[in-house]
Amino acid sequence: MKFDLKVDFTFSGDVSSIKREIEAFISSYSKSLIRQDKSAKIKSLKIQKNSLSFDIVSEGSFRPHNVLLQMKNAISKEFGKKHHLGVREINIEKYKIGFELVKKPLKKITIPFADVKLEEKQATIMLKDVDEEFLQRNYIDRMITLVKEKVENQYYEGKGEFWKLIWESGEKKQVWLKDPTEEMVKLSWLKQGPTKGKWFYRPQAAAILKTMEKIAIDEVLKPLGFQEIIESSMVPFDIWLKTGHLEGMPGEFYYITEPATRDTEKWERFVDLTKITKEVPFDELQKNVSIPTAGICYAQCPVIYWSFTGKTISEKSLPVLIYDKTAVSGRYESGGRHGIERVDEFHRIEPVYIGTKEQLLNLREKLLERYKHVFNEIFKLEWRMAWVTPWYLAQAGKIGDAGNQDTGTIDFEAYMPYRGDRKKSEWLEFQNLSILGDKYIKAFNIKAQKSELWSGCSGIGLERWTTAFLAQKGLDPDKWPTGFRKYLKELPEGTEFL
Ligand code: ATP
Ligand code: ZN
Ligand code: MG
């Protein structure tokens, strides 16, 4: 890497009278830098009134910005005692950082706080007017990483996710070719709305969804010893900062705003306008709500991990097996919405497991066995399993590749006869199962007495289980497989509409 930094230290008073001493100090400091990295050099030293400015250049691994805070302390210590002079402020006037990229960029990139120049495999970032806080918060190293990551991502864009078949049920005879959502709407079992991607489940559809929930709990989670927890559906941003969701999917969250105040006087105009216009006074509303600091649950696991923050788990509690079925998930699916299978608000059960690597690999086998029992014996589904790499692990670049099958995600996919040919059409991901190594364990500082911990989760989408089952088995309970009929033989009558 190549660094060229121009910095200015502002002293608490005039230092021209101790110019020699400062020069001597910087010169010895410079020597100590050379011992760390031969290419590091301090040059163009200038002292004027209360300002000391110089350049630090280096062509090795030594990053000049990392030494400035240390230098400030050293200078203040040296001259504070003798002359009662300290450094008030550091300001990097200009900073040029050049580094080699692994791959040649495919197009221009930009990042905040700096100009980026790309030439073949060489990247240069130019910063101006960097203050001390910027240094303390370690932004510069992250900016370098971000440039590398953005170039790397140019090669993934549009490539789709990694997908490798690991198991398939084989063909099953299908009873119909209709889209179950449309048919349920016609029968008034379901009603779309009240807004985009949301549904009202009338008694018949609700009974099917609730049966899915019961089957998942009775046939999979309870037999394996999972215990239920109840979590909040409102997730503060600091949790998503830790899991990486905030940088991963900011365009998919439903954001939550709090009122800026409960003071009725402040809301008076809003109330009056509502009474008079019988419309929502959005401009007035905006004055009385805060900027979002949270979002609606995207997946349940982040809050579950948060609940273990900083805890040491007793060996006898391992593996921790818990699940949430209360929090409702919200995702802004935009153009992708379809029926009840891709919605903006959905109901999931999410089991989370924390334990040793051996415990989790063993649990995965048991979960797979129970899931297979449900999909083969109870639903008699045509389905398959594939190894995939979700975005948040693909970015880390470590987890989920075919060579390493300890960590990663398995997607469960069902054939949807209404979508056409089983070879050509897209199958529906109706759930997944992941083992994520120590990613979240580290992020939330979770420990055991002795063991190294890993964690994982599985997302059971009730709407997805429902549509997968109905798309293959139809809406007539008499024709449903016996195993399923043990749970639900007939549907509630519902309301007759005239
Ligand atoms: P997809 O690729 O279909 O968007 P995803 O990879 O975003 O799915 P995950 O984040 O892995 O989904 O969530 C796990 C499970 O949550 C899915 O297997 C599915 O059961 C359910 N799910 C996710 N998004 C939706 C949605 N928009 N509507 C209904 N269920 C969903
Ligand atoms: Zn999860
Ligand atoms: Mg998705």
Task: Describe, in short, the structure shown.
With 498 residues, the chain is an alpha+beta fold. Helix content is 34%, strand content 26%. β8 and β9 (199-201) form a beta hairpin.
Supply database-style keywords.
six-stranded antiparallel beta sheet, binds zinc ion, 2 domains, Alpha-Beta Plaits, single chain, elongated, alpha+beta, 498 residues, BirA Bifunctional Protein, domain 2, binds adenosine-5'-triphosphate, binds magnesium ion
Can you tell me about this structure?
By secondary structure, this protein is an alpha+beta fold. It folds into two domains: 2-154, 2-Layer Sandwich (Alpha-Beta Plaits); 162-257 and 292-485, BirA Bifunctional Protein, domain 2. 34% of the residues lie in helices and 26% in strands. The chain is built from 16 helices and 22 strands. It has helices at 19-36, 68-83, 132-136, 139-154, 180-186, 203-221, 237-243, 245-248, 264-277, 282-288, 301-307, 357-378, 391-394, 439-443, 462-473, 482-485, and strands at residues 2-11, 41-48, 51-58, 87-100, 115-119, 122-131, 163-168, 190-192, 199-201, 227-229, 234-236, 255-256, 294-296, 312-313, 320-324, 328-330, 345-355, 383-388, 408-414, 428-435, 447-448, 454-461. Strands 7, 10, 15, 16, 17, 18, 19, 20 and 22 form a nine-stranded mixed β-sheet that branches. A six-stranded antiparallel β-sheet has the order 2-3-1-4-6-5. Strands 11-13-12 form a three-stranded antiparallel β-sheet. It starts with a strand and ends in a 13-residue tail after the last helix.
